[in-house]
Amino acid sequence: MEFKEKLISSHLAFEEDLYQNDRVAQARASALKVFEEKGFPSKKEEAWKYTSLEALIQKDYALFPKSESSIELNEVKKYFLYDTDTYKVIFIDGVYSPFLSNTTHDGLDVCLMSAALSKPKYRQLIDTYFNKIAPEDDSMTALNTSYAKEGAYIYIPKSVVAEKPIEIIHFSSGNETALWLQPRNLIVVDENAQVQIIERHQSLKEHPVVTNSVTEIYVHQSAFLDYYKLQNDLPSASLIDNTFIVQEKNSHASVHTFSLGGKLIRNNLRYFHKGEHILSTLKGVTILHDKQHVDHATLVHHAQPNCESHQDYKGIFAERSEGVFNGQILVDKIAQKTNAFQQNNNILLDDKATVNTKPQLEIFADDVKCSHGCTIGQLDEEALFYLRSRGIPKKEAKALLTYAFANNVLESVQLPSLKKRINGQIAKKLGVNLGFEL
Amino acid sequence: MAYTEEELKKELETKEYEYGFYTDIDSDTFPRGLNPEIIRKISEKKGEPQWMTDWRLKAFESWSEMEEPEWANVNYTKPDLQNISYYSAPKSKPKYDSLDEVDPELLKTFEKLGISLEEQKKLAGVAVDIVMDSVSVATTFKETLAEKGIIFCSISEAIKEHPELVKKYIGSVIPPKDNYYAGLNSAVFTDGSFCYIPKGVRCPMELSTYFRINQAGTGQFERTLVIADEGSYVSYLEGCTAPSRDENQLHAAVVELIALDDAEIKYSTVQNWFPGDKEGKGGVFNFVTKRGICHERSKISWTQVETGSAVTWKYPSCILKGNDSVGEFYSIAVTNNFQQADTGTKMIHLGKNTKSTIISKGISAGKSQNSYRGLVQVGARAKNARNFSQCDSLLMGNDCGAHTFPYIEAKNNSAQIEHEATTSKIGEDQIFYCNQRGIDTEKAIALIVNGFSKEVLNKLPMEFAVEAQKLLEISLEGSVG
């Protein structure tokens, strides 16, 4: 538990060099108390039954990188979705990089959490939104809150459609031997507004990195949020991602998670409904090999009538990789006419691969349509034979079927260049070149 | 449906728990409380050999260190285990040669329950081992069974007469350390049934026992052990009803099934313990551990209809140890008023080519909570394991809840697992369709529920299926708003 002690004692130094905002300071202090009390989650907790942080927290991590690291643009260019025509909020070792970023205040705010927390003009927004939906009793979230300082702050005003997608990228340079990052993002999409966001965590050298990220997202009436999480980090990097979304009436929030690389990934994704006729979409593709471990823990809390939610997670697991799906649909008594759907399909490619899945329904209303389905299996032998009988080699045939398997999720990606990139990454992961675009 | 509208109407008028009566039989009851002394006394009272006493004491020891589990999705006031009398046996206990010698009070009880022994002797060939407050008082058809070499008796008798079998198998599937209530049962169980089917024998009749909780303030700790030797077959029925009582009663039974190579066991349960009244007062706590182990090419099939009990906590499971073994679980759980049920199954695939099927139907009405909790586990060596699970829930009314907690763990790439679950209510169009054909709403619901549960009801032996259908309708009576 040494690292836990360090986190607690370092907090004093952290708080000292901060400007004062009473509410934020208070939130940090009480969050630290929660973390001190609860500590890191253990496998004994139902929510962490299949994922252990034990090995991660045995190590010691630097909390505040010693020096500012600069990175050449050429070094990281390949990680950008587009060269120029996106807004970019880029951090290196948790520190904002103005050189690589492309922020704006023109019509919409794409800037920094540290600025939002300190500047008086954001005071009201911070008071309304900051730390309002992140659950107080979750220890990893509390740990993040206690150190909340930097991250992306995005505000899309009423009826504004962000004309360019926004990329949030966290690089870790590898200049520290081991690094513990805690970015904190706040995203507000006001009435009728629309935005597309891509989030990515990337280390540039093999070195232990743990990112414990918290993102709070508010999607107001009739607004549309389209969020993509790209998780294709080096095998030395781990990520604990906590995303909390509140939706108002008639809004649509969609989150796609592509987990293709990294050591240990835990995605906590929670939706809360605050109005009627809401649509929530949660989709994911997970393709793992080696000893990678990915855990998707989703919760959709239907608290209002006439809402819809769709969950669709596909997993393909090779070698000794481990996949976990822990999906939960909660339907309150007043949430009549809810239509909730949850699906989790998994393919095990190798003997030692493991899948643990726990799709849960908790329903307190009677006039609902809720269902979940989950399967674990292999590629269809007959389909494979069909393709091979038409002259497609086994490896390519398998890749084609795998594509088809993941396609339900891929086809709803709205950004063509992102789709292309993900397709490329999947092909690379499967070790094939199909010679055509899918 | 098996009976006419008038009958249903009559049933509905007397919808209060119809088996809620109390038979005044002189009972031999121990002081309340639990300690090694009581356990020794139980053992002594039953004339058990030393190894059994030691086994009980060991179970008590490990139980004392355990804590009551809290993970189930149920809320209740924990029973005070020190305030229960752990032994209660009807006093007049000679073995009867004919029914005339049986205490007439007792016979009346059976009559009210609808089991007439005379009739059953002639009918259907069902041998009944009636357990009333823990001690077996009447056994029929023993001779017919004995001819085939089948042993069907109370477990205390088996401990005395077939110690080698009991010693070998008791606690082999559910060790006393397994869980809190299994541990408690192992320490204090007073009676139960024992059944052994020899090699290659097909049991010619359905074996059945009837459990009742009778004495006020006694917990019922049944222990059932069924052993099917190589190539044998047995179908075993267990049915329960209990009298109305104000304080909560505890029922913590343990059922162990052992299916050796090529054997098949079919275990059916109709559970209708007192569910508490409409305000949620009283009712039985049903904390049962049931598990079977399958050896090579064998099969265990659990079928249950759960309509009673205030709180149910029950997961009949199969350990598919042998290659090519098969496990099945068919369940209907109905909850009404303030009932809570957390039930399901565990299928542990260890052998190659093992198969399991889970069909679970949950119906919740009134203010009840109904949960399915199941585990499908495929071990690393279980090549070609196959599982199909289906959990459907039906909600009636706005104050009840239906929950599904399936756990699926696969460690083998040749495993094929399918799970699907749905939750819905009875369609207004379905009811309308029935209404416009002259079927009133109450009857329409009964029809639809019956259709909903058909897959499971079909798996029950004939005698039970009729009773179960009736039970379903009585339990759901008045739940439609």
- Quote the distance from N terminus to C terminus of chain A: 48 Å
- Secondary structure: helix percent of chain A: 10-25%
Oligomer description: heterodimer
Strands in their spatial order, largest beta sheet of chain B: 4-3-7-9-12-14-17-20-22-24
What sort of overall outline of chain A do the alpha carbons produce when their principal axes are compared?
Answer: globular
User: Which spans of chain B of ≥5 residues are poorly predicted at pLDDT below 50?
Assistant: 11-15, 91-97, 118-127, 132-138, 212-218
Number of strands of chain A: 21
Helix/strand class of chain B: alpha/beta
**Which of globular, elongated, flat, extended, rod-shaped describes the shape of chain B?**
globular
Beta percentage of chain A is 35-45%
Structure annotation, total helices of chain A: 10
Distance between the termini of chain B: 23 Å
